[in-house]
Amino acid sequence: MNSRFVPDTATKIDPLPRAPMAAIVTASYAPDFERCRLLCETIDRHVTGMAHHYILTEHRDVALFRQLEGSHRSVVDERDLLPRWLHAFDDPLSGFRRRIWLSIRTQPLRGWHVQQLRRIAIAGHAREDVLVFCDSDVTFVKPFDTDAFWHDGKVRLFRRDGMLSNDGHDEHRIWSRNAGAALGIDPANPSSHDYISTLIAWRRETVNAMCERIEKVHGRDWVGVVGSARQFSECMIYGRYVDDVLQGAGHFHGSEEFCHVHWNGEALSDEAFRRFVDAMAPEQVAIGMQSFIGTDVERIRRLIGLD
After folding, report:
1. By the number of CB atoms within 10 A of the CB, which of 95, 235, 237, 253 ranks highest?
2. What backbone torsions phi and psi does residue 240 show, to the nearest 5 degrees?
């Protein structure tokens, strides 16, 4: 890697159109199908300003998720997004319960790694100006217009300023360093900012330029570069590209989170769920119940009035 690779100061970042098109992007898999179905229902009920909703899945899950397709929603097979040299298998080390993606160009990758790669790769497939990323365990509970993600031709980049300078963020610091390495940023110039959240937006053309940058720095496919380190975050890569390479061009920063997430702990009772919703900040329009916690989907559906 050439750590002296200069910032893309010559990259031209045009303002977004006066009425840019936005797409919501959701990476999911079969065990989260019912959660994704609920997400789709609440998007249709509460979200405006969206031109399309892309659901990104592994090839074997495409038929299942096709049930959710409609005039403004489509399922995208990862085979149409990622290189054919990246192959998915049932993992014998997990008793064939989990999947693993193998190639000679990357480390062995799990599903959460490949979901991140799909989110980057959709920029080469979509036509919309702005990509809004929303996990399949998110549920909208209030009206939301995707216009919130742009202002004066710029896209909102979620950023927690200086968060990585605090204790307890070791893993995020590793992700940030690996993002810098993928982008050819001098390691003597680390970042202290955190860019990770759900319900955030990227400029599609900027994602494609970011991939071109990675390939120019390393002389090989961006998927192989990113996947060569098992500890990575697509949000960190995009955030560092915008701030450290483009010097923020085409973006403005925001630290408010639009989704109130229950990250860990036990499944919520009805009363605990109501307290959780009541604790939402004024700008928050959705809730996220991490699927591994086990809060029942039908309970969520009932408590938000969709039963």
Report:
1. 237
2. -70, -30
Residue 20: CB partners within 8 Å, gap ≥ 6?
Answer: 128, 129, 130, 150
DSSP state of 243: I
Amino acid at 176: S
CA atoms within 13 A on the CB side of 213: 29
Q: pLDDT digit string (tens) for 52-75?
A: 999 999 999 999 999 999 999 999
- Over 50: is that where the pLDDT of 6 sits? no
Q: Are 115 and 57 in contact (CB under 8 A)?
A: no
pTM reported for the whole predicted model: 0.94
Q: Which residues pair with 139 in a beta bridge?
A: 287
DSSP-derived letter for residue 93 is G
Domain ranges of the chain: 22-303
Q: Angle at Cα 145 formed by Cα 199 and Cα 292, nearest 5°?
A: 25
* Locus of tokens 């039908």: 298
Radius of gyration of the chain (CA): 19
User: Per-residue pLDDT tens for 77-121?
Assistant: 999 999 999 999 999 988 888 999 999 999 999 999 999 999 999
Question: How many CB atoms are closer than 10 A to CB 25?
Answer: 22
> Do residues 143 and 46 lie in contact, with contact meaning Cβ atoms separated by under 8 Å?
yes
CA angle 214, 224, 238 (to 5 degrees): 40
| Homologous superfamily (CATH) for 22-303 | Spore Coat Polysaccharide Biosynthesis Protein SpsA; Chain A (3.90.550.10)
Apex CA 224: angle with CA 221 and CA 227, to 5°? Answer: 145
Which are the contacts of 245, defined by CB distance < 8 A and separation ≥ 6?
Answer: 7, 8, 183, 185, 210, 213
Buried b (16+ CB within 10 A) or exposed e, 75-99: bbbbeebbbeebebeebeeeeeeeb
**Residue whose pair of structure tokens reads 């365990």 in the numeric block:** 137
What single DSSP character describes residue 194?
B
